[in-house]
Amino acid sequence: MLPYTVNFKVSARTLTGALHAHNKAAVDWGWQGLIAYGCHSLVVVIDSSTAQTLQVLEKHKADVVKVKWARENYHHNIGSPYSLRLASADVNGKIIVWDVAAGVAQCEIQEHAKPIQDVQWLWNQDASRDLLLAIHPPNYIVLWNADTGTKLWKKSYADNILSFSFDPFDPSHLTLLTSEGIVFISDFSPAKPPSGPGKKVYISSPHSSPAHNKLATATGAKKALNKVKILITQEKPSAEFITLNDCLQLAYLPSKRNHMLLLYPREILILDLEVNQTVGVIAIERTGVPFLQVIPCFQRDGLFCLHENGCITLRVRRSYNSIFTTSNEEPDPDPVQELTYDLRSQCDAIRVTKTVRPFCMVCCPVNENAAALIVSDGRVMIWELKSAVCNRNSRNSSSGVSPLYSPVSFCGIPVGVLQNKLPDLSLDNMIGQSAIAGEEQPKGSVLQEVHLKFLLTGLLSGLPSPQFAVRMCPPLTTKNIRMYQPLLAVGTSNGSVLVYHLTSGLLHKELSVHSCEVKGIEWTSLTGFLSFATSTPNNMGLVRNELQLVDLPTGRSIAFRGERGNDEPPIEMIKVSHLKQYLAVVFKDKPLELWDVRTCTILREMSKNFPVITALEWSPSHNLKSLRKKQLATREAMARQTVVSDTELSIVESSVISLLQEAESKSELSQNISAREHFVFTDNDGQVYHLTVEGNSVKDSARIPPDGSMGSITCIAWKGDTLVLGDVDGNLNFWDLKGRVSRGIPTHRSWVRKIRFAPGKGNQKLIAMYNDGAEVWDTKEVQMVSSLRSGRNVTFRILDVDWCTSDKVILASDDGCIRVLEMSMKSTCFRMDEQELTEPVWCPYLLVPRASLALKAFLLHQPWNGEYSLDISHVDYPENEEIKNLLQEQLNSLSNDIKKLLLDPEFTLLQRCLLVSRVVTDKKDISLHSPENELQIISTPYLTSYEEELLPYYEVLARIERCLALQATVGSSCLVLSPLYELSGNFGFTLLRLYGDESELHFWTVAAHYLHSLSQEKSASVPATTETAPRDQVTNPLDICYDILCENAYFQKFQLERVNLQEVKRSTYDHTRKCTDQLLLLGQTDRAVQLLLETSADNQHYYCDSLKACLVTTVTSSGPSQSTIKLVATNMIANGKLAEGVQLLCLIDKAADACRYLQTYGEWNRAAWLAKVRLNSEECADVLKRWVDHLCSPQVNQKSKALLVLLSLGCFSSVAETLHSMRYFDRAALFVEACLKYGAIDLSEDTDILC
């Protein structure tokens, strides 16, 4: 027979509640899949998938105002393992950097004693991942080394800084939102502070525009946009203009370069920073709900918007070629291409009250398919975006909204209709990019139209606002071990009782019991409790008392006192006897009532001259055992008289005995047994009364005169032979009843509000609660064990206390939290891997580094298996068996959809890489090996058997390289791929999503796209070399969010669309000039000439523009003219006219020379842009390769970006070499394998360097 086990482990934890107003913006969703938010001075970390609290960090002494997860966009291995790092800042200016898994503070930073306005981790270079940029009021930005707390540099500005935003396409560009305008910084660097004050511009609010009054009557944002012209100026607006006072947010658009949004309560403005002009506006109608926050998406040009009613909406940019008007609207005589964002989905709103309102929203950065809403009452609502295929014929064609189509690819690789895929994995797997960028659908397309909807997939409720009354259920004993659950009942100010399961920290039940504040709770059994509440007193001081008996399994609640309770003095306390037989109800100005708990009947209502009770406690002694012995003897005698045979006698005796034992084990008294119990109470004079209760009989046993050293007694606790009394002056009096001695201890802590003994036989620990804190005492030694006092180091005030277990206490505090602490009452954090969770959580960060890397390797590649498996038991893991079990637990916690994908034999290596990078987090690629299954890449036995049973993938690379070296000596014809190797195309895609791996996600996205493009070219019999860029494709191009990495033709098309939009929205000569410059660079000379001729005669540039128009029109390709123009351009560049000289070179088709000049003068991004739009593939590749060399230089150190550029060029061998030089051996091994599968790398003497 297996031993019976029950999980009653209770760890130290904190139950959080409503948030403070300072916590409004303190929330972040990390790439690791975890959400962190501030709750008063605490930082709460929850799992986004299961909505379980994983960690509560407590070290701040003030309210938290910002939290920010560290970016995981760097290479990880054993030397640089994954860690959960989080930065939090408070209103006192302190920044703490946490190791969240261990629950310890790694670094504390303090510059000033004012609230931190904003913090951000730097992500733009490979040298260091410890840099943290912070705004210290009023006008300082400080760069910190978050590992050591060292201040690297500090820079001040003229205006108060509110927030900042980095350009996601150019990390040297930083934008500050100030109290008066915007400051653009173009030379941000970790090495030194910005050199100047930056470019300061002013932005007029849309409310200051005369057109704003017409927004309500306009049919949409399209007509309003034509009226809102200049918003960015370098001149300070006049006093009658409203400036940035009501601007809520500033953010760059990560989906396309040089675009920024400004959020106002009723408008979202999209700005094109190249022309400093509004190119899109989302206006809310007069009856609409104002905006609170907006989060722009990266994968698709969409916006997650939070409204004041708590509704989250998703708006997606409409395709240019899909703009049409409704049937009821007159066609616009002058149709305009503009950035229009259509409402695609919205979630339900919340009920907003004075105390309940939406605070903030965060979006999943990995998949961008979920948003979490933080509500002021402590709720966290996780809304997940789902796609549903719809019938095209059922679409409402008059809605004015273009259709959305599902993408043709999944995890970077086109898939068939019947192939397994997870369409809701991420936003780019839900919506095809053609619906965003305006691409025409190909003929015979099998794309399916989809609709989007929000589903509530996670809800975490917090505690309501204080006051609290807490009571732990009866303690664990050997008799109740089979049914015991560590339940905590919490009475709240709104009349409800919350029951928490303290093993998991989750809400077990919420019961609406009372109509007013709950004052106290007493458990009557493991499954029931009594609670009382009192209403607000009337003019006579009388209240309505509510005393309810609640059955927990059913939730049934009955009025324990029946019709009693109206217009009487308030109940001050209730006390249930030790055997749960009797209940004492103490009133303020009314005699005591004694009740039978089992029958809900009153036993005795004391006379009016009964003493006024100030404290009461039941004795733990009783006569139940002697009564049961007598009853058992009586029943045995009766059985002997009625039974003849000895056999029947023994059967009856055994049945009677077992029946009695069963009743005793459940601590239930039969109706005919009423044990005698005792209680003591004190009156106003301090006299102690001892009364005995047995059935209906109440007897006055003894009276003890008051102790002269004690004041008015406020509370009593009794356990064993020890009785403890506390008074209004803070004195504790310890009575040893057996030794008949007492000892008084003055604590000098004022009023003793409550004292309770700890559970457990022989455990004589006691907790005492005061107005300013609490103390734990050892009554055996009569000495204090620990103390907690509200003040500088403890920012909260204690409202109620109780014991959770024999060595843990419960503290309810006025910050809305309930803390389960060790007996020392030190507010310490806990290790995440020590928590008991009801649902398994996928979080490989909690594993030791080697195990986490091994898990990722196991998910990525199993070359020793003929088919993919999620059972790790057959692998010989060199560590202990416990680690192996943890790995299997993580595998078991994966969702069924993910498991189905991973087990699909058609799911390729590239797809697995991308899935793991998204869904888990960024543990870099490794591989497993078992000694009986050797890596089978080629049919000949080039690889020796492994000595290790588990190798990180960077060690496997060496084996692969030796294999390639041996193969090169034999000849490429010997290469025969194993069945699994044949399927290695997309396997890694999906796994990287599992790990939330930012850098690898981008790498494998670009790699999968161009490797697949190469295979399509080869299948179409198009010759291609390994070191030339693949043929530009626009049928299924790389997403435009990758900007310069896209195919040239698609990039050119996007830039032409953009300049056309800029041209339509131009309103001043400066805008026209910028559009002209862009058109000339793009080679659109005819349209540029038209704009040049539009210059009015009274403009000071009229003559120059006219001459320039003539020059553009008459440029010929003759030698002398080309030489002259080139000479002039060179001179202009030498004399500081770089932009003008580049224009002249482009006029004579010398764009390659122009790119070289731009690179010489440090304009690397501009040179890459010009090469993409003007040069052919070979010339463009030369320019970009020089850029790669620059990115790899020690001064820049952006090799990760250089890898992406090389991938876009199709330089796959160079990518492998660079990965090897960067010591990214794991990624290099997987990449080489994928290239071999696609035929992107031919094994020859030229590629021996990879070996």
From TrEMBL:
<dbReference type="InterPro" id="IPR057854">
    <property type="entry name" value="TPR_WDR11"/>
</dbReference>
<feature type="domain" description="WDR11 TPR">
    <location>
        <begin position="1051"/>
        <end position="1237"/>
    </location>
</feature>
<dbReference type="Pfam" id="PF23751">
    <property type="entry name" value="Beta-prop_WDR11_1st"/>
</dbReference>
<keyword id="KW-0966">Cell projection</keyword>
<dbReference type="InterPro" id="IPR057853">
    <property type="entry name" value="Beta-prop_WDR11_2nd"/>
</dbReference>
<protein>
    <recommendedName>
        <fullName>WD repeat-containing protein 11</fullName>
    </recommendedName>
</protein>
<dbReference type="InterPro" id="IPR001680">
    <property type="entry name" value="WD40_rpt"/>
</dbReference>
<keyword id="KW-0539">Nucleus</keyword>
<keyword id="KW-0597">Phosphoprotein</keyword>
<dbReference type="InterPro" id="IPR036322">
    <property type="entry name" value="WD40_repeat_dom_sf"/>
</dbReference>
<keyword id="KW-0206">Cytoskeleton</keyword>
<dbReference type="GO" id="GO:0005794">
    <property type="term" value="C:Golgi apparatus"/>
</dbReference>
<keyword id="KW-0333">Golgi apparatus</keyword>
<feature type="domain" description="WDR11 second beta-propeller">
    <location>
        <begin position="485"/>
        <end position="825"/>
    </location>
</feature>
<feature type="domain" description="WDR11 first beta-propeller">
    <location>
        <begin position="22"/>
        <end position="323"/>
    </location>
</feature>
<dbReference type="InterPro" id="IPR039694">
    <property type="entry name" value="WDR11"/>
</dbReference>
<dbReference type="GO" id="GO:0031410">
    <property type="term" value="C:cytoplasmic vesicle"/>
</dbReference>
<keyword id="KW-0853">WD repeat</keyword>
<dbReference type="Pfam" id="PF23753">
    <property type="entry name" value="TPR_WDR11"/>
</dbReference>
<dbReference type="InterPro" id="IPR019775">
    <property type="entry name" value="WD40_repeat_CS"/>
</dbReference>
<dbReference type="GO" id="GO:0005930">
    <property type="term" value="C:axoneme"/>
</dbReference>
<dbReference type="Pfam" id="PF23752">
    <property type="entry name" value="Beta-prop_WDR11_2nd"/>
</dbReference>
<dbReference type="GO" id="GO:0060271">
    <property type="term" value="P:cilium assembly"/>
</dbReference>
<dbReference type="InterPro" id="IPR057852">
    <property type="entry name" value="Beta-prop_WDR11_1st"/>
</dbReference>
<dbReference type="GO" id="GO:0005634">
    <property type="term" value="C:nucleus"/>
</dbReference>
<keyword id="KW-0968">Cytoplasmic vesicle</keyword>
<keyword id="KW-0677">Repeat</keyword>
<dbReference type="GO" id="GO:0036064">
    <property type="term" value="C:ciliary basal body"/>
</dbReference>
<dbReference type="GO" id="GO:0048513">
    <property type="term" value="P:animal organ development"/>
</dbReference>
<keyword id="KW-0963">Cytoplasm</keyword>
<comment type="function">
    <text>Involved in the Hedgehog (Hh) signaling pathway, is essential for normal ciliogenesis. Regulates the proteolytic processing of GLI3 and cooperates with the transcription factor EMX1 in the induction of downstream Hh pathway gene expression and gonadotropin-releasing hormone production. WDR11 complex facilitates the tethering of Adaptor protein-1 complex (AP-1)-derived vesicles. WDR11 complex acts together with TBC1D23 to facilitate the golgin-mediated capture of vesicles generated using AP-1.</text>
</comment>
<dbReference type="InterPro" id="IPR015943">
    <property type="entry name" value="WD40/YVTN_repeat-like_dom_sf"/>
</dbReference>
